[in-house]
Amino acid sequence: MQQMKLIAMWIIIAQFLTAFVGRSISPLMFYISADLSLNKGQLGFLPTALFIGQFIATLLVGYLADRLSTRKIMVCLMIIVGTGFLSFAWIDNYTLALVFVVLAGMGYGGMHPVTNRFLMNILPVNQVSLLMGLKQMSITLGSAGSSVVLIPLVAFIGWRYTLSVAAVVLLMFSFIMPFVLKTKEDSQTEIATKLPLRQQLRIFLHSKWLFFTNSSAFILMGIQMTFNTYIILFLYEIKDWPIYSAGICLAISEISGASGRVLWGIISDKFFNKNRWAVLLIITILSANGIILMYFTYSTFFIVMCIAIIGFSLAGFNGIWMTLAVESVEKSMSGFASGFSIMVASIGVFLIPPVFGSLVEYWGYFVGGIFLISLFACCAIFMVIALFTVKKVQPS
Fold first, then answer.
1. Around 239, how many Cα atoms within 13 Å sit in the side-chain half-sphere?
2. Which member of 68, 182, 241, 316 has the lowest number of beta carbons within 10 Å of its beta carbon?
3. CB-based contacts of 128: which residues, under 8 Å, 6+ apart?
4. In degrees, to the nearest 5, what angle opens at C-alpha 121 toward C-alphas 119 and 125?
5. What average pLDDT score do residues 319-338 get?
6. What is the Cα–Cα distance from 339 to 113, expressed in whole angstroms?
7. For residues 267 and 112, what is the distance between their CA atoms, to the nearest angstrom?
8. Which pLDDT value is given to residue 305?
9. Which residues have a Cβ under 8 Å from the Cβ of 196 and sit 6 or more positions away?
């Protein structure tokens, strides 16, 4: 039990620091835009590049996580993230900068299936929901921490040095971690599946469970990244807020999301008999209403409340999503299944933000908002269908 707690602690710390660096683009967006003279469409491609890397890596990393040492893979991925962002910080060429963000995204995205598999080694699948939420919570806390810490630091040393410091901290941790866990090597307590890769993919593609999981993640992850990318610019340009105050709101959203990633799992277990589709429907409705109310009010209090609700719902859904992904298959394929689901969600993440940014560039935030609400409506339809077609958690 003590070893389990130690492993869980290191998973959470590693995921926190990876997210602290990996999600640093959103709070630094204003400064990156000004320094590199980027328009809103180009800005949208920065998080897109991150998640293109995630799209490329997650399926392969998930496949390897079911077969190799998750600790060693995790260390390699953290080094990739740190190196990618350290290089990005000192490149002026926009195209080359995108290449290094893609590289960093491969490490950032690969962490998800690896840490998910790590958790599946620790606990039975029917007990993993809370720990999965805590692990996902560390991602939003890392993102919130980057908003709170990095924006003030930019005022003293500039965004390039600020991002470099964050990347170096991650690299130092990645080099220390193998020595700390030298005697705590994670054991593959479950034998990897004997099914060939093609047969596993066929199972995933024919799984109604995974179809609805991936459809909701495709939309909600894309909107979540759009919100994180443009919320600071929206508050600065439309609501006339100072940059730092807007950055604090992004942090509030992420902190709310951190609590949501734990509480939504508890809510689904205690009050909905593990019917996570119903919970996802509630999350979708709350998020859509929060965005609508935030646009039409100018009250500081209500804007902050709307942002907190959006964060609690939109950033908080990830714990439910990851639990659904690992519940969809046998435990021996859990790493590959979560990698497959993250790969599909990554498509939404690298498509939706630049589309939103282009709509805002030409027609303003109102049209961009209509685009997001339409996506929420599609997600709600998927969840209603799932409620009537997939009713029980499948045993693994």
1. 24
2. 182
3. 119, 120, 122, 323, 326
4. 70
5. 71
6. 5
7. 23
8. 93
9. none
**Rounded average pLDDT over 275-285:** 86
Comparing CA positions, the residue from 108, 90, 132 lying closest to residue 54 is: 108
Judge residue 249's burial from the number of C-beta atoms within 10 Å of its C-beta, 0-12 exposed, 13-18 middle, 19 or more buried: buried
Residue 121 has a pLDDT of: 66
CB atoms within 10 A of CB 394: 12
**187 three-class SS:** coil
Angle in degrees, CA 56, 255, 111, rounded to 5: 25
Record the tokens describing residue 112, joined without a space: 């998800």
How many residues are present in the chain? 396
Give the predicted TM-score (pTM) of the model. 0.70
Contacts of 183 (CB under 8 A, 6+ apart): none
Locate 129 and state its tokens: 């929901």
Select from 229, 232, 250 the least CA-distant residue to 241: 232
Helical segments of the chain, H only: 2-22, 25-36, 40-65, 70-88, 94-122, 129-180, 197-205, 208-237, 243-270, 276-296, 300-310, 318-327, 334-363, 365-389
Per-residue pLDDT at 231 exceeds 90:
no
| 311 DSSP assignment | I
Contact 40, 362 (CB under 8 A): no
